[in-house]
Amino acid sequence: MAFDKMELQKIEVWDGNRAAAQALRQSQVDVVAAYPITPSTPIVEGYAKFLADGYIEGEFVMVESEHAAMSGCIGAAAAGGRVATATSSQGYALMVETLYQASGMRLPIVLNVVNRALAAPLNVNGDHSDMYLGRDSGWIQLDAYCPQDAYDLNFIAFKVSEDHDVRLPCMVHQDGFITSHTAQGVHTLTDDEAYGFVGEYQPMNDMLDFEHPVTHGVQTEEDWHFEHKARQHNDLMTKVMPKIQTAFDDFEKLSGRKYNIVESYDMSDADVCVVCMGTSVETAREVATEMRAKGIKAGVVGLRVIRPFPFFEIAEALKGVKAIAALDRSSPNGAAGMLFNELAGALFNTGTKALLSGYVYGLGGRDLTKAHLVSLFTELQKNVDAGKVTTPLQQFIGVRGPKLSFL
Amino acid sequence: MSENKNIKNLKEFSTSADRFEGANLLCPGCAHSIIVREVLNATNDDLILSASTGCLEVCTAVYPYTSWDASWIHIGFENGSTAVAGAESMYKALKTKGRLKQPDRNPKFVSFAGDGASYDIGFQWISGCMERGHNIMHVVLDNEVYANTGGQRSSSTPIGSSATTSPEGRRSYGEKKNKKDMVSIMASHNIPYSAQVAPNKWKDMVKKIQHGFSVDGPVFINAVSPCTTEWKFDPKDTMHLADLATDSLVFPLYEIIDGHELNITYRPKTVVPVEEYLAAQGRFKHLFKDEYKHLIKEWQERVDAKWAQLNRREEARV
Amino acid sequence: MANKGWDEFEIGAMLRTFEGKIDDIAGTLQENRAYSQNSSFVASVADWRIIKPVFNKDFCIDCQFCWVYCPDISIISRDKKMIGIDMDHCKGCGICVEVCPTNPKSLMMFPEKADEETELAAWPAKNEEKK
């Protein structure tokens, strides 16, 4: 090894970007092809600096667009090695074509998505519009709520994505600025522990094996395309969750930190709950605890795995609850929110009598305040008491002007 | 750097074991595969290849068949160059880390793309690859039209050509804009080698490809690829059209070393009038109407001026 | 190749050109390669042809113009000698005939259904007007 290990404190004060960059270093990523975009840039800058300082060996390719970044990642992954990059928002949107190509070609690439709003109007702050844009792209998608998660989930991402039974690319989402630029205490792994967990990259169908040439990226028309897409969907639906669960279990043994496919807080006896993603999970947990002091049995469910969607796990988590709020941090633009729809789908044929309502919040980095959540939990309790949804099914919260609601 | 394959003459060249296969779906008489063969057969080293979306790509990797005997990748229309650049980056990373399965090989990284995928939609990607100094070769199969999608004009389509989106008609002589000078643009990236080649001049082609493989850094090759379907000539005449292209100086053969040293590599013994080149193709047929004949004269003047300019550049070494 | 179900092929629609390992592709002639069922080498485009080339080796000078300019890797040259045409891969474009420099030509195009031996027997003589 011609690079130096880095001595880390047991707890480092890192923001989400730094945590992700350190995870890429400790995973000994071979190639990063990247293009800067706020707020994800420090992740790839971090890799570049580690390389410049001799804490890693590999290639950093600073390309001329996000489309080229993912194109380069695809070429590098097909060549046969560990590949990662990061992006946000418009960059993610520019990448979309290649996101489908990466997953369709079954190439394990880890993409850190620091979630940010989509223009127009231009906005650099956090919401989940970019995450929602790529939700059908065939990638495994994990969600971090804080810098610690951003660090840990990168290791999980490599482990699952590169598994020869999986071979699907994986995104690790974190909230722009709130997670990416807010420093918190992060419990670290040593370099050896981290690399030992992720393991050495095991090539498969690698272009650089000159004794076994491969053709990647073929054309399939009506006689083959459906079968290939079906295969990909099947593998995402049936093979990924068990591998994630195993990775979570192994990671808990190593670090003591337990992750779940669906994260449930105070749900065992909850009457009302919110289902959300990102940093909102932590805010909602705090408010739920306070609501309990006021006599409302509140709980919180956070999605840890967004794709494949934890259809059964989330139905199980919501089994006993009486009223549910789906919190979507992306404008649905003409429909109910993604989470609202997914939850409705997951719950519709179950025995639940739970009342489901949807909330759109936090667009463009607008804060979700504790006061918002207090009134939201209070509304849910009203629904429970009335035995029906007393509000419109879709409400915008935190937006100025006349009350905005639909459905 | 591995040694160049020794190719003194055509007989010697013909002992090459092709790494591109037949029963691909290219049109009968397509020049693309002639160019691809000449490029691939110029070396015995291992190859990592890509093709951008286009005729070559859709005709050589239609499931469940591949016509490629070396590792090959296609991602999209615009990013074949970057795909190969990514693979080249991984090669460098694994070489540094001592993880190559066959560390003794000297692979060559080549991306093939049409003029649409190079002059237009992939322009930025190629420019990025050239600027970053990847050890790759980008080969344009320049048939001056979007042939795969049925004959739309690209920024390589020359004046007067009738394309489906710049058709000749009662009030139009077809394409109004002159072809983009891609070789100059790429040479301006100060890359070690850029060149224009033609399949009929196989020896010139092989020499240039070998030069390209021997330098350290990005290489840009523009290959004229007469298109039987869109240029509208009989499939048997592909090489005749290539001869007319080079011998009329419509496609002069030259190279630019390190972005400035220009060498003309082929001087026709007898220069053919441009009119003969135009007359051999259906896409220029309307230019022979009385009202458009001045365009043929202008064509000749343009080609003469370009040739004079190339000669001045060669002489001046700029 | 028979159409397979969704669970029966390689992920990512990846194709392998050869069965097993191949050490030196550029140093291995086609007849010595173990092509997989996924190489187009094993396929045929013979049914594309309306006309076909017939090779008359009596006039061939092994110049290899036909070899280098054949778009379909259908001119079989071994040890610097032109030995025949790969009729599975020839699409009948006629380039080989056009570039053939001999007089009379060593390759000529005939209707696909023409009988090769008959055509060879009736091969034209040297054309004195040609340069």
Structure characteristics:
heterotrimer, A: 407 residues, alpha/beta, Rossmann fold, 2 domains, seven-stranded mixed beta sheet, 17 strands, globular, C: 131 residues, Alpha-Beta Plaits, two-stranded antiparallel sheet, elongated
Topology at a glance:
The complex is a heterotrimer of chains A (407), B (318) and C (131).
Chain A: E1 11-14, H1 16-26, E2 31-34, H2 41-52, E3 59-62, H3 66-79, E4 83-87, H4 89-104, E5 110-115, H5 129-133, E6 140-143, H6 147-161, E7 170-175, E8 184-187, H7 191-198, E9 214-216, H8 225-238, H9 240-255, E10 262-265, E11 272-276, H10 280-293, E12 298-303, E13 305-307, H11 311-317, E14 323-328, H12 338-347, E15 355-361, H13 370-386, E16 394-397, E17 405-406
Parallel strand pairs in A: 2-3, 2-4, 4-5, 5-7, 6-7, 11-12, 11-14, 14-15, 15-16
Antiparallel strand pairs in A: 1-8, 6-13, 10-12, 16-17
Helix pairs in contact in A: 1-2, 1-6, 3-4, 6-9, 10-13, 11-12
Chain B: H1 10-13, H2 31-40, E1 47-51, H3 55-60, E2 71-73, H4 80-96, E3 108-114, H5 115-120, H6 123-132, E4 136-142, E5 168-169, E6 172-173, H7 182-187, E7 193-197, H8 202-214, E8 219-224, H9 228-232, H10 238-247, E9 254-257, E10 261-264, H11 274-279, H12 293-316
Parallel strand pairs in B: 1-2, 1-3, 3-4, 4-8, 7-8
Antiparallel strand pairs in B: 5-6, 7-9, 9-10
Chain C: E1 15-16, E2 51-55, H1 65-69, E3 75-78, E4 81-85, H2 95-99, E5 107-111, H3 116-121
Antiparallel strand pairs in C: 2-5, 3-4
